[in-house]
Description:
peroxisome; Rossmann fold; nine-stranded mixed beta sheet; 6 helices; alpha/beta; D-amino_acid_oxidase_CS
Amino acid sequence: MPEKTVVVIGAGVAGLTTALLLSKCPGYKIIVAAKHMPGDYDIEYASPWAGANYMPVSIRGTEAAEWEKATWAPLEDLARNHPEAECEIHRREKDAGSATADWFAELLSPEPWFKDTVPDFRPLPKSSLGPGVDAGTVFTSVCINTAIYLPWLVSQCLKNGVTFKRAVFSHILEAAGPSVCPGKVDFVVNCTGLMASKLGGVNDKTVIAARGQIVVVRNEAGKMVDVSGTDDGDGEACYVMTRAAGGGTILGGCYQKGNWDSQVDPNLAIRIMKRAVELCPALTGGRGIEHLDIVRHGVGLRPVREGGVRIERERVGDLWLVHNYGAGGAGYQSSYGCAQAAIRLIQDAAGPQSRL
């Protein structure tokens, strides 16, 4: 059967994972075309800014939960030679109904669907909970160092023959044009994340930014911790997580839907650090935020899609469009499952091919 040409728009975790997994299947010529590539830092490019840990947030029984479940095994395998960390989830009853608690609804459940997926899931004893915390759970998780992981995905794609090109598109059909590939393009895979809201031919206005702000420090926490909410506002959150392989410890954060501001809010940064030190005294040995060794401040925009991730296929003339975008804050922890779902759509349309 003739080789099919596939152009993947977007070089974030969704686009790179889709390209990598498809490159393991015979019969495809793959081109990744994107405005931003690993190594870039831009407010339009969410993947480098992500916390990139595994804390499932999808509701039980949904396709999204299955995508997150399918992603655990490969992430665990990648992290096998790096220290894994215990992840503690703290629930305060007074946070019920807040934006953060709604975002983390499944994560906060005492019996979440992923309890049989991650290792060592168990309730936290009441005696170990801090003041104001009503209940908690703990499990073994991983936190990806995005500065290493994204280039690693590129390197694995290159090893499998994937081509990379810088490109800026005003319309999705331009990805099938001669500037990207002089021959016939059979599939365009749309992994544009937040930019799906502005890309011609897509213009998905259900995709909105959910602003996150973090502080990256050299201090070690010894574990990952997440709380159901804060006392500082509905759109603010508190989490601490150390990235693998010397990636620093991330202190967060916020979940500000509809906010596209790329600049660091210094007042929010102080609140983030104060909450983190209070939650995890090991960061500074019980001392104040002046003892945090700051690497940098960061702002990223989660590509949240109302109604969930879009993984769909549509036909435009003799060209197939396959969409894989809108994972919000779950981009890494659902990346393999979403990529596999998108690839099945490609394979079904392409006809008999070796399966993933």
